[in-house]
Amino acid sequence: MALSYLRSSSSRSVNLLKPLSSSLPLRRPISTDTTPITVETSVPFTSHQCDAPSRSVETNPKELLTFFRDMALMRRMEIAADSLYKAKLIRGFCHLYDGQEAVAVGMEAAVTKKDCIITAYRDHCTFIGRGGTLLEVFAELMGRQAGCSKGKGGSMHFYKKDSNFYGGHGIVGAQVPLGCGLAFAQKYSKDETVTFALYGDGAANQGQLFEALNISALWDLPAILVCENNHYGMGTAEWRAAKSPAYYKRGDYVPGLKVDGMDALAVKQACKFAKEHALKNGPIILEMDTYRYHGHSMSDPGSTYRTRDEISGVRQERDPIERIRKLILSHDLATEKELKDIEKEVRKEVDDTITQAKESPMPEPSELFTNVYAKGLGVESFGADRKEVRATLP
Amino acid sequence: MLAIARQRILGQSFQKIRPAVSVLRSYSSAAKQITVREALNSALDEEMSADPKVFLMGEEVGEYQGAYKITKGLLEKYGPERVLDTPITEAGFTGIGVGAAYYGLKPVVEFMTFNFSMQAIDHIINSAAKSNYMSAGQISVPIVFRGPNGAAAGVGAQHSQCYASWYASCPGLKVLSPYNSEDARGLLKAAIRDPDPVVFLENELLYGESFPVSDEVLDSSFCIPIGKAKIEREGKDVTITAFSKMVGYALKAAEILEKDGIHAEVINLRSIRPLDRSTINASVRKTNRLVTVEEGFPQHGVGAEICASVVEESFAYLDAPVERIAGADVPMPYAANLERMAVPQIEDIVRAARRACYRSVPLAAAA
């Protein structure tokens, strides 16, 4: 039952829309329409040590509709996770991405599954973007067998190696050198692919980031460092943590681009530009100007260090889903009702998946001792009382 | 005593001290002698030749030929794409190594000494050791972290710590520590071929020591199984466990004890994690007495784990309390006389073995 909901969605939308299109014989099925449309990004790109790409982005109805559906799915998923956490079905840490969806979908539109993505702990939507399923997300959050890490990882440790998603990391900043290592391996293997290493404005001050950037620049690694600047590192605003919050410039000798991270098309354009650059010239930094509606995690209300006006202001003016909705409507690619239907459908999908995920059992006790090693050598491992609980590692 | 110890370490008078009997018992056709350095170098060379995914990374490993010349000649042979000189940024380059291992390459990351691994320890533990578990088997990390560990000579507190017990306490890591050239070759080759992260603890003072090796050891397919200790010398009166340089000391202590009619069994651990509990316990069940020897700090050390294991599994077989010989519980001093007091000496091992055998001279009343 682990269907890729994103892929099957287009066929479902066609079914939904067929009756409508038959009543309006002049309208083509929008979900498969790839007629190019050119859109201007909301703001121009700002560049450092390079020439910025054009503000004109090529897209098409199919892509815009996919953006809409994918972001609506991600948004709904994160809000549902909020409720599950409050119902104590999700434990420990839960860092939600709602508001930042445009970065995940825009990036996927510019790259292939052979390119690598690695991020920190705010990884649920990035995982979906890489082809992970809703069931794998909810089951993992609730610590069940159907989870992407079989319930053994939790919110911060989602991985999908077959589509080159390398997690899911809890230690702030660690994922950046790891990402540069992925880029190293891609270059070593002559794969002609790139790695996107995502980090936040809080992680941007980590020393290991600059160590990895130095080596990446020296060795011309195809590494793209993407700062998802949501302006708050946990409860600390960027101006209180960074002497220079111009994160796209912090690479010094490494070029950088500042991007409106709430505009999926701008993100797509920037990532496409960065991939071409990285393959030819080595590392580049992308700063995505984005925003998270939730607090840092579920333990943080998110309103003690920022005003509710600020949060609602961004929601009204810069929401990534609303932007795409307006674009779709203004280009007459779908009606308001059709878009609302998509949102209803997504909501139902999320609800149904949660029901399914709740039925997935917790891991077997023997799973405590699996995957400690790839090759356990028949060695013994112990439980809390080693005279009671022992296991042989396969 | 220190001067004699130094001479031994430099391998000059080594052959004179080792009795011919144990040489014949330990090695099949002991024809050739190679240094630990040559053993490590040849192991790296052969594994790089056999698998194009293996590459080396570290400070001075390339053009400088290796800070301790372990990687000598490898840059010339394999080129700068496979032998990479890094800047002095352990956190950065270790993270890069682990990331490359995520993708499927097989990095061998050198720390100039394991003291510097502390700058990168988050990547060793959180990024490497735990990944296979957290990802339920999706992300395995076939990486080797190698370099000199423990005390050298006169290098002071910040350059002398032994990290065996720190790393060996972490599930997900394998921790190996060779003693002689056979160990160095076999264990390093096994480590590079292993799909899990391996911490490979060498010893600077052993690099120049020569040991006899058989043709089997010199063969390019030679490998030592991880997790198996070696009984270097058989005995029936007391078991002495040791790893790395201390194996040499334990063997010399055994010769001294022999003269008193105490036949010591010396176990070369080779693998700190997984620890070969069954070999250790089988030996203690035979001898009924145990002395653990290590160079590192005593508290929460390797000896403490071995003692606990024996108490848990073989308590009824113990005829005496377990004795622990370890480095002194102080940061390593510089002055030669204090340094000598801060690391185990052969006479410490002999004394502890005698105590375990209830043959020690009673302590003087003044204390």
Automatic annotation (TrEMBL), chain A:
Domain Dehydrogenase E1 component: start-end pairs: 69-365
Record field: catalytic activity: N(6)-[(R)-lipoyl]-L-lysyl-[protein] + pyruvate + H(+) = N(6)-[(R)-S(8)-acetyldihydrolipoyl]-L-lysyl-[protein] + CO2
Region entry Disordered, spans: 297-316
Keywords: Oxidoreductase, Pyruvate, Thiamine pyrophosphate
Cofactor: thiamine diphosphate
Alphabetized InterPro entries for the sequence: DH_E1, PDH_E1_Alpha_Subunit, Pyrv_DH_E1_asu_subgrp-y, THDP-binding
Enzyme class: oxidoreductase
Gene3D superfamilies linked to this entry: 3.40.50.970
Pfam families: E1_dh
E.C. code: 1.2.4.1
Highest taxon of the lineage: Eukaryota
Compositionally biased residues, Basic and acidic residues: 306-316
NCBIfam families according to UniProt: PDH_E1_alph_y
Role, per record: The pyruvate dehydrogenase complex catalyzes the overall conversion of pyruvate to acetyl-CoA and CO(2). It contains multiple copies of three enzymatic components: pyruvate dehydrogenase (E1), dihydrolipoamide acetyltransferase (E2) and lipoamide dehydrogenase (E3).
Subunit structure and binding partners: Tetramer of 2 alpha and 2 beta subunits.
Protein name: Pyruvate dehydrogenase E1 component subunit alpha
Lineage: Eukaryota, Viridiplantae, Streptophyta, Embryophyta, Tracheophyta
Automatic annotation (TrEMBL), chain B:
Classification via InterPro entries: PDHB_mito-type, THDP-binding, Transketo_C/PFOR_II, Transketolase-like_Pyr-bd, Transketolase_C
Function: The pyruvate dehydrogenase complex catalyzes the overall conversion of pyruvate to acetyl-CoA and CO2.
Ranges of residues in domain Transketolase-like pyrimidine-binding: 34-209
The protein's name: Pyruvate dehydrogenase E1 component subunit beta
Organism: Hibiscus sabdariffa (roselle)
NCBIfam families per the UniProt record, alphabetical: PRK09212.1 (NF006667), PRK11892.1 (NF008854)
EC number: 1.2.4.1
Pfam families in UniProt: Transket_pyr, Transketolase_C
Record field: catalytic activity: N(6)-[(R)-lipoyl]-L-lysyl-[protein] + pyruvate + H(+) = N(6)-[(R)-S(8)-acetyldihydrolipoyl]-L-lysyl-[protein] + CO2
Cofactor annotation: thiamine diphosphate
Keyword Oxidoreductase: yes
Top-level EC class as recorded in UniProt: oxidoreductase
Chain segments annotated as coiled-coil in the UniProt record: none
Keywords attached to this entry: Oxidoreductase, Pyruvate, Thiamine pyrophosphate
